[in-house]
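Can anyone check this?
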Amino acid sequence: MSAKKILIVEDDLILLLLNKKFIQLLGHVVVKAVKSGEEAIEFALNEDNEIDLILIDVRLRGKIDGIIAMVEINKSRKIPAIYVTGNSNKEIKERAEMTNMLAFCIKPVSLNELELIIDKP
């Protein structure tokens, strides 16, 4: 298994740090951690930035949520997303499924859960 380059999009500092630590413990690389959908779009659309996967919160500070950010990113780059959310209602999950969704997880995501998702063949 080669290390994946992962962008984290999370506006809660504690969860951001926890997710970053989990990704590193699993042997992957956090290429950047940002707090808003707008920052995620800006970073991801720069072709110089290598990203294999985006770990993204659904609800973010700013004008757009994580799902809208992924819709915009996927117009130019097909990067899979692991969504994390505190709200698992059906409408949100259906919106996420319309993107390049790898998984939909309820916060807080565990190390074992991330390992199963990221490292599955």
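Reply from J.R.: I decoded it. The beta strands are 5-9, 29-34, 53-57, 81-85, 101-106.
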